[in-house]
Batch of 4 targets.
Target 1
Amino acid sequence: VGDRCYEKGMYEAAKLLYSNVSNFARLASTLVHLGEYQAAVDNSRKASSTRTWKEVCFACVDGQEFRLAQLCGLHIVIYADELEELMCYYQDRGYFEELISMLEAALGLERAHMGMFTELAILYSKFKPQKTLEHLELFWSRVNIPKVLRAAEQAHLWAELVFLYDKYEEYDNAVLTMMSHPTEAWKEGQFKDIITKVANVELCYRALQFYLDYKPLLINDLLLVLSPQLDHTRTVSFFSKDAMQHAAESRDAELTQKLLQWFLEEGKRECFAASLFTCYDLLRPDMVLELAWRHNLVDLAMPYFIQVMREYLSKVDRLDALESLHKQEEHVTEPAPLMFDFDGHE
């Protein structure tokens, strides 16, 4: 009889009948139709049925009774296979704040599972990004890291992305992210710790260039931690190349000469030869010749002198051409003056 009354919308009658037979699940369903949400929650507790909790929870959400909806939701989120439907119900109606509040309250439950921590992290990344990193620092071991990584990348949360890459042991990606987004993601201590763990050694040399570009005063600290992983010969060449480029861009002839002398003092013959062309227009040929002769490097410097000679000859040829043109202009016959006889006639 109670079911017939319920189906016909006679909820008051159904309420009495269900109460008499202690059918708490059907009574809870009846009470939400009567708008008696608190009583519905109380009877859901007695019914102790996930289906009933969901029905009452959704009814409370529709009635914007979010405190009561949360009480019901806490009995639903502990089941991983029920979590998605519950979240969709809230999100489809735009109740993101209320959903976040419910998941926050659920984290302390004894039966809290990975899905809850993961979905809350994703919600934070979308709607409360300022809370994402704190959440991850506390619960990174309880989230599905690949899933949260994708969410953090989509939300452009670079610091959070680095944190997760580090915990997931994807050190190469962590370093690349820090160098690509230094303003948001780079931290000195964290960078030095992670760079020593990368699998791709080429990233170490990229890190050196990154420090030269953005953190030149800290380059020595980086070299200290990278020393075991670097090829020292390649590293010296790397810095020599950078020094040559810097000298060329400085337009300082004195600095360039000192750099050449340093290369020779250190026995870096190839760097000396390379500098002759990198800094070509800042060098005095007589100075280069003297250095090359004193260090027995005339053969190594010969391509430079050939280029110098070619330029000098080209200049001489141009001067000769100009001189010849000038002489031709001087020998052009000037118009003869008009001659007049004694009486003033031509």
Note: Residues 250-317 form one domain.
Target 2
Amino acid sequence: MQNIDLIIFDWDGTLFDSVGQIVKSLQFAARKFQQPLLDEDVKSVIGLGLPEVMQRLFPQVPELHEQILKSYSQHYVENSGSDVWFDGVAELLDALKAQGKLLAVATGKSRKGLDRVLAQTQSADLFVATRAASETRSKPDPLMLQEILNVTGVPSHRALMVGDTSYDLEMAQNINMPRIGVSYGVHAVNVLEQFAPVAIVDSVEKLSEILLSIIHN
């Protein structure tokens, strides 16, 4: 891998241990409006923007999308206060930052949701740029990555996308950006492999080994 100046992270399932609560909150909202879902269906859309999630999960009831989203968001906010970074993430981000790497976030969250968890983790100052799906196009469209590149002035081949879903890796592939998949989040290894990542890791420890080695390249 060539020298990397900018590392862009997905949030949920990559940095933040929140997938379980996302599934519970979407299931809660679905049951409230008599729209049963399988856990596998919910996990398959994590990473997309919320409007795209509604279109994928509830195409038969577009008139309920706004109400389901409101119920989901309320349940998530009320029950996600104990969600935290995966073990080792805080130390990894601090180490990368200390070595002069630029860090950014590209997430399927809304801006409101991202700002809430940045405040919850007191991590806003770690990132030179953040993009949420509500203010740009949803993954796998690469627009949010292009916007981050525009802000930082880093070309795509000197940036790296790290994510746990096919949407993350496809988004990076669409802009010829190197990418690493993490299999401890949502999508399985065989799904991530389809988008030619430079590596797939199954723990934050192994992710740290790869990313910290970049410092010395």
Note: Residues 6-17+83-214 form a domain with the Rossmann fold fold (CATH 3.40.50.1000).
Target 3
Amino acid sequence: MQFDTGFPTADAENDFLRARRRQVLSRLAAWLRREPDDVNIMLPFEEVVDALGRVGEHRVGLRVIRLDSIVGSVDRTRDFDRRFRPTSGRMRERWQRLALAQRRGEPIPPIEVYRVGDLHFVSDGHHRVSVAVALGHDTIEAYVTEVRTKISAEGIRFRGDLIMKADRRLFLERVPLSGPARAAVVVGDPWRYTVLSETVEAWGFRLMQDECRFLDRPAVAARWYVEEFSPVVEMLQQAGLVGARTEAEAYLSVSEQRYRLMRTHRWDDEVIATLRAH
């Protein structure tokens, strides 16, 4: 919200002080709530793109974007918090000059951002974003460059989410599922993606031994989903062994128990009955 006293210079000074005060109070509130350290940290662009897997980029041009879609920065993650409130007083002079210019209605150059999914990351114009947020604006003009990635940015909120995204990307590189199969195989613990990758690769190795021929990763992934995962999940659902877990989590859990109890890779009524009993 913008507060006006009729004295633009004094108002700009107060704008900065309010932004700093809000940043300090936000840190204190996060500490009192014992929230993770990354709650108020701006997302670093390179880490996000590395986790998702860069495919390419193209220039979109000048657009009007929502300020609440700007979640990170290319290189200024320590100067502002997640909501672009200044984290120190060292930028005060420059910040206030921009706030004064905006209050006087002077033209402000568009910022420059990278777009990843629905998220935007500032490469130039951090102070302009900070001032616009402090003055209660909803949108800002930006030159947009869109970055294409191997997996979607959907679901990224905090820095900790990047671990899950990176492990899922690596899983899909090792087990390149497509279409509905890609969306269906999901786990909640990033480490389980590594275990699932090894499980699928072991299944594919046994398959190639049985058929005495080589199959590439896409072929193994497609056949594993159709011949192993889907039938087994259906059996587990009928036996009431899925519960609140995802289908992939249930599949992994009972696969491990199956081998521990019966030393077999087969699936039949006897295996399901033994698993259910335990």
Note: The chain has a mean pLDDT of 87.
Target 4
Amino acid sequence: MIAEAQFNRATLDCMTALRRQLKRSLGVTVRLGDPDAVEHMIDLSRDSQLQEIRELGTRLADLVQAPDPVAQPSPLAQGAIASRQFSHRQENIARLEADTDQGSAPSGSVRIYRGQVIRG
């Protein structure tokens, strides 16, 4: 099953091209709406004798592989506000980690004003 985050225009184009090639060369009809359509097309492409089908299957497998769980989210595809919020979050995380590494707990009052932490 393909995750929603992995489903984009490039994935759909690759799936459609592979589906057409499989239908043309092997006579196999794969419905894109089936829950196991991606895995089925990848399995069929591995067993194919045609190089083009194998390449499309490999490309599709690369597009739908599980994302690296260690990778940090990227602000590149976000808007300006979301990008700024992302950078502020990263700065706050780094600041909190530095405070805990030094062993000093924040003292005094802490307020949040318009999304920013103000220590008093």
Note: Residues 72-104 form one domain.
